[in-house]
């Protein structure tokens, strides 16, 4: 209890942490390779993009929003990074292009949702289609591959023994945590997630909050793109196709309400780790990779069912409070 | 001098006249009850005061200055706070966060507005203490409070906005007996602090318990204004239903 208070973890977060541990122990017993330092590092490396996108998705769900185009938005930003890198503009320019393209896409999404007054799930589904095709057109039917290594060298470096990617994620986490817990943005975001009408009557500028959340989310997708290109040095057609599902599943697993009004950043981090551990472990014990999205989708549905049954969800999603 | 002076306030929605030539004064430190049957024009009148509608004719003055509100925000800035029947509180936020929602106390560091959470909690604790609301923890979520306690939080919010006029729309409609008593006591205390309180209610006994004056609307007109001491529930009910001889005479004359 005392430790729990110090860490200020909810029972949901503790359960998730326990689930991660159990999965690690179980997979280690079945597979000799799972528990090796190399493999555990791989799991962490594979979590980088999803962690960043998950943080953005946490803000959106907490606000009663959602974005199903995060994967393809990352894809578009990745092409930007790749093209800049291939054109020889150097690592720094390439690194910055990711978040910039991401934020620009975030502004597009925010404009459609907020100014067009279109429900976010529909608006981002439409944009998903647009972005998807934009990826095909921009790539021109060819992968970007064999990109220069200058960005890779910087991104894979370490500072004080900790990889730069880990520092970046920690910084992003800290900034978002401070914004949520220490500035008016937090209560405003959660008030909007609870009820737009009540938030407006209380003097919250609902549109400003919604706009900011979508732009932050876009910038984080772009940052993920920078890390993706730096690590894999290629951009393929199907880039990011499972990311939206994985991000929503991780965030909901973490205890953020799909209906808005409640969020947990720690929960999102643990949710991402659990998904990546399961995917990696199942692959190692011989489950075909085709089943990965089945597991992720199944987890999402199972968690939502459990939440509904245990009364964590205030009202049925079908009878949502009027926005 | 009256805090709010309404003169000849009229509101038309197309061909329908919802409010016809209302003259009304609301004084500092009094609880003024506004009664009337459904469709009498009560809601239209408070919406004009709260800035949600603007009047078609007539004049509103606050502390002698003519005002014209084009939004609820305008009204709030002029010192009018409205406590809606469906309270505009966020259940998932704490009491203190609700009281300060939209106007948090912050300290800017490098341009970033950081919440001064402790200062806000202390201010809310003070207000709750002053109201004798029996809520000990300003950090508790509003979702955990009873209906009466939520009214107290909404009243705190109004006080914190330095409201001069607090409009309470059916504050006891959804409350149990004990809770109703508390909210009525809070209403009295608001008036004692020097606020003007405009109370809308259907409950005659509640009105007789807290109001200093009673005004009755019927079919868009003000038809009666009484000091509470100078009237009784029967007379007020007969005004509301139109059974009172004066009302009959008035309605005959207007036909």
List the helices and strands and how they pair.
The complex is a heterodimer of chains A (323) and B (255).
Chain A: H1 2-7, H2 11-30, H3 37-62, H4 70-86, H5 91-115, H6 120-139, H7 150-155, E1 158-159, E2 162-163, H8 164-182, H9 185-194, H10 196-201, H11 206-232, H12 243-253, H13 265-284, H14 292-309
Antiparallel strand pairs in A: 1-2
Helix pairs in contact in A: 2-13, 3-8, 3-11, 3-12, 3-13, 4-5, 4-6, 4-11, 5-11, 8-9, 9-11, 12-13, 12-14
Chain B: E1 4-13, E2 16-26, E3 31-36, H1 42-50, E4 57-62, E5 65-67, H2 72-77, E6 80-83, H3 95-100, E7 106-109, E8 112-115, H4 117-130, H5 147-160, E9 165-169, H6 177-192, E10 196-200, H7 204-210, E11 213-218, E12 221-227, H8 233-241, H9 245-254
Parallel strand pairs in B: 3-10, 3-11, 6-9, 9-10
Antiparallel strand pairs in B: 1-2, 1-4, 4-5, 7-8, 11-12
What does this structure look like?
The complex is a heterodimer of chains A (323) and B (255). In chain A, β1 (158-159) and β2 (162-163) form a beta hairpin. In chain A, α4 packs parallel to α6. Chain A starts with a helix and ends in a 14-residue tail after the last helix. In chain A, strands 1-2 form a two-stranded antiparallel ribbon. Chain A has 323 residues and is mostly helical. In chain A, 72% of the residues lie in helices and 1% in strands. Chain A has one domain (4-310): ABC transporter involved in vitamin B12 uptake, BtuC (Orthogonal Bundle). The radius of gyration of chain A is 19 Å and the shape is globular. Helix content of chain B is 36%, strand content 28%. In chain B, α5 packs parallel to α6. Chain B is globular. Chain B is built from 9 helices and 12 strands. By secondary structure, chain B is of the alpha/beta class. In chain B, the strands form 3 sheets. Chain B has a 6-stranded mixed beta sheet, sandwiched between helices. Chain A binds chain B through residues 182-184, 186-188, 190-191, 193-195, 197-199, 201-204, 261-262, and chain B through 72-73, 76, 84, 88-93, 97-98, 101-104, 106, 112-115.
């Amino acid at each position: 209890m005392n430790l729990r208070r110090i860490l200020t973890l909810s029972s949901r977060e503790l359960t998730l942490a326990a689930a991660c541990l159990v999965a690690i122990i179980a997979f280690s017993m079945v597979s000799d390779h799972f528990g090796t330092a190399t493999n555990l590092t791989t799991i962490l490396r594979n979590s980088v993009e999803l962690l960043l996108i998950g943080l953005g998705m946490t803000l959106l769900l907490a606000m009663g929003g959602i974005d199903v185009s995060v994967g393809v938005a990352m894809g578009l930003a990745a092409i930007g990074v790749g093209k800049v890198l291939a054109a020889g503009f150097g690592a720094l320019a390439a690194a910055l292009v990711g978040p910039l393209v991401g934020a620009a896409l975030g502004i597009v999404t925010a404009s459609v949702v907020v100014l067009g007054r279109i429900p976010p799930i529909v608006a981002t589904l439409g944009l998903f289609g647009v972005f998807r095709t934009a990826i095909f057109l921009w790539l021109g039917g060819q992968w970007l591959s064999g990109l220069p290594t200058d960005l890779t060298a910087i991104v894979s470096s370490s500072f004080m023994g900790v990889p730069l990617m880990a520092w970046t994620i920690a910084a992003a986490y800290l900034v978002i945590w401070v914004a949520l817990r220490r500035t008016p943005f937090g209560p405003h975001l959660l008030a909007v997630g609870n009820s737009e009408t009540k938030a407006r009557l209380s003097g919250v500028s609902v549109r400003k909050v919604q706009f900011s959340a979508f732009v932050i989310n876009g910038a984080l997708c772009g940052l993920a793109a920078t890390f993706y290109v730096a690590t894999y040095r290629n951009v393929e057609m199907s880039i990011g196709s499972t990311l939206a599902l994985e991000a929503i599943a991780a965030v909901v697993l973490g205890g953020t309400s799909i209906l808005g009004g409640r969020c947990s950043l720690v929960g999102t981090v643990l949710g991402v780790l659990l998904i990546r551990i399961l995917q990696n472990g199942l692959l190692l014990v011989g489950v075909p990779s085709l089943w990965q999205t089945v597991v992720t989708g199944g987890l999402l549905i199972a968690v939502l069912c459990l939440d509904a049954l245990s009364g964590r969800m205030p009202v049925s999603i079908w009878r949502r409070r009027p926005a | 001098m009256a805090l709010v002076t309404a003169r000849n306030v009229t509101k038309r929605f197309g061909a329908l006249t919802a409010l016809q030539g209302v003259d009304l004064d609301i004084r500092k430190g009094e609880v003024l009850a506004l009664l009337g049957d459904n469709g009498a024009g009560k809601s239209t009148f408070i919406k004009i005061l709260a800035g949600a509608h603007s009047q078609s004719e007539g004049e509103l003055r606050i502390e002698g200055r003519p005002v014209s509100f084009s939004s609820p925000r305008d009204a709030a800035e002029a010192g009018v706070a409205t406590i809606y029947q469906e309270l505009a509180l966020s259940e998932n936020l704490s009491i203190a966060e609700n009281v300060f929602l939209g106007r948090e106390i912050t300290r800017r560091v490098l341009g970033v507005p950081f919440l001064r959470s402790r200062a806000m909690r202390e201010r809310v604790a003070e207000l709750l203490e002053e109201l004798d609301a029996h809520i000990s923890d300003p950090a508790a979520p509003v979702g955990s409070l009873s209906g009466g306690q939520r009214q107290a939080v909404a009243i705190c919010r109004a006080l914190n906005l330095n409201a001069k006029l607090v409009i309470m729309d059916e504050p006891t409609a959804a409350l149990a007996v004990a809770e109703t008593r508390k909210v009525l006591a809070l209403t009295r205390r608001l008036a004692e602090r020097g606020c003007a309180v405009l109370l809308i209610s259907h409950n005659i006994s509640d009105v007789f318990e807290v109001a200093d004056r009673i005004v009755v609307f019927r079919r868009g007109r003000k038809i009666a204004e009484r000091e509470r001491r100078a009237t009784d529930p029967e007379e007020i009910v007969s005004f509301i239903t139109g059974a009172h001889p004066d009302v009959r005479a008035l309605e005959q004359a207007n036909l």
